[in-house]
């Protein structure tokens, strides 16, 4: 039987988590169109602060509230990875990589006895990123973090033929790691809070 003090502390923790994750989700929504450092840094800081709170305090979120918190956290995990990954990609290449009209990147391919030509590769990265972060968040919440290895393997196999250029390899690695880091951090925090 829990004491009144335990119930009060657990309630305060739940309210804090809802407020912090809601604020982080709002900041991420602001950064969806154009990833900027300040909103993403504050959102990331809120996620890390929530992670520290749930890892230090010995209270778990009640199951019904945990389900609502999980819904909010999965939304943050899925949506937040997009601007975070795009920000990391821009920081990694300094904005030198040209984006194509179909969501990929333009790379210059050299052909024997022909002029170099630009081709768009890594199309569909945004949609793939949303799907991978959804799978990671749900897998971690379900207690199956090995889903991360499965996703990395599937992406590597699926994109293997497009990774011939250094720009494509760099974008693939940086984008995947940034996306998985964001999703794993948010989902890991949720798992600690609920279980």
Give structural notes.
With 195 residues, the chain is mainly alpha-helical. Helix content is 71%, strand content 6%. The chain is built from 6 helices and 3 strands; from the N terminus they run αααβββααα. Strands 1-2-3 form a 3-stranded antiparallel beta sheet, with no helix packed on it. α2 runs parallel beside α6 (166-194). The radius of gyration is 19 Å and the shape is elongated. The mean pLDDT is 87.
What is the radius of gyration computed over CA atoms, rounded to a whole number of angstroms? 19 Å
Summing up helix and strand content along with how strands pair, one would put the structural category as: mainly alpha
Write down how many β-strands occur, each being a DSSP E stretch of 2 or more residues.
3
Helix content: over 70%
What's the overall geometry? elongated
- Given as residue ranges, the uncertain stretches (5+ residues, pLDDT < 50) are none
Mean pLDDT over the full residue set? 87
Largest sheet: 3 strands, antiparallel
- Which sequence of SSEs, written as H and E, runs from N to C? HHHEEEHHH
Spatial strand sequence of the major β-sheet? 1-2-3
Assess the beta-strand content as a share of residues. 5-15%
Distance between the first and last residues' Cα? 18 Å
């Amino acid at each position: 039987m829990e004491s009144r003090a335990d119930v009060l502390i657990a309630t305060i923790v739940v309210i804090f988590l809802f407020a912090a994750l809601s604020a982080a989700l709002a900041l991420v929504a602001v950064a969806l169109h154009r990833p900027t450092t300040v909103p993403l840094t504050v959102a990331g800081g809120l996620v890390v602060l929530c992670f520290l709170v749930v890892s230090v305090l010995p209270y778990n979120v009640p199951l019904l509230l945990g389900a609502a918190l999980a819904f909010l956290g999965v939304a943050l995990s899925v949506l937040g990875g997009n601007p975070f990954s795009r920000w990391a990609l821009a920081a990694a290449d300094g904005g030198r990589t040209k984006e194509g009209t179909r969501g990929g990147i333009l790379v210059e391919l050299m052909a024997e006895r022909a002029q170099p030509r630009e081709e768009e590769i890594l199309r569909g990265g945004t949609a793939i990123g949303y799907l991978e972060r959804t799978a990671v968040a749900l897998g971690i919440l379900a207690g199956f973090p090995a889903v991360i290895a499965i996703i990395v393997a599937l992406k590597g196999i699926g994109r293997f033929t497009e990774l011939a250029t250094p720009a494509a390899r760099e974008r693939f690695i940086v984008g995947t790691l940034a996306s998985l880091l964001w999703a794993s951090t948010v989902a890991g925090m949720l798992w600690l809070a609920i279980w």
